[in-house]
Amino acid sequence: MKPEMQEREFIKRLFNDLILLNRSIPIIVEGKRDRIALKKIGIKGKVILLHRGQNLYEFCEDVLRRHEKVILLLDWDRKGQQIYQKVSDLLKGHFEEYSLFRDTLIKLFGDEIKEVEEIPRILKGYGIL
């Protein structure tokens, strides 16, 4: 297999794993466009919007009342990183085993990706969507 094919297959498996995990574990995103982007790539499970009129503490308390585990998929831009730091502190112990997904995306795509809503465009570029 050529390196590009290996990378493409790895990316496909990564997103297939996310789709499977999301059957039982909700994904937290920043906004509506992020949720729409995830639906475009095949996410059918629960996607929770971060910006729902609550402060971050109330939001995280509400999430923890309803879910034991979550997947944090917040943007990689400056604002997203700041929110990620705060939310990850508040959800400590409930998301870490799935943080590899977010970390892997930034390692794979670097500056090509700053926001979750860009994922469908990137996957199309790789011929995955």
Order of helices and strands: HEHEHEHHH
Count of discrete structural domains: 1
Number of strands: 3
DSSP helix fraction:
40-55%
Fold-level CATH name:
Dna Topoisomerase Vi A Subunit, Chain: A, domain 2
Mean pLDDT: 93
Give the count of helical stretches.
6
Return residue spans where pLDDT drops below 50 for at least 5 consecutive residues. none
User: What percent strand?
Assistant: 5-15%
Largest sheet geometry: 3 strands, parallel
In the CATH hierarchy, the architecture is 3-Layer(aba) Sandwich
Distance between the termini: 20 Å
Measured on Cα atoms, how large is the radius of gyration? 14 Å
Structural class: mainly alpha
Strand and helix layout:
Blueprint: H1 3-21, E1 27-29, H2 32-40, E2 47-49, H3 56-66, E3 71-72, H4 78-90, H5 99-109, H6 119-125
Parallel strand pairs: 1-2, 1-3
Task: Give an account of the 3D structure.
The protein has helices at residues 3-21, 32-40, 56-66, 78-90, 99-109, 119-125, and strands at 27-29, 47-49, 71-72. By secondary structure, it is mostly helical. It has a single domain (3-125), classed as Dna Topoisomerase Vi A Subunit, Chain: A, domain 2 (3-Layer(aba) Sandwich), CATH 3.40.1360. It has a three-stranded parallel beta sheet with strand order 2-1-3, covered by helices on one side. The mean pLDDT is 93.
Quick rundown:
The protein is mainly alpha-helical.
Can you tag this structure with a few keywords?
single chain; 129 residues; mainly alpha; Dna Topoisomerase Vi A Subunit, Chain: A, domain 2; three-stranded parallel sheet; globular
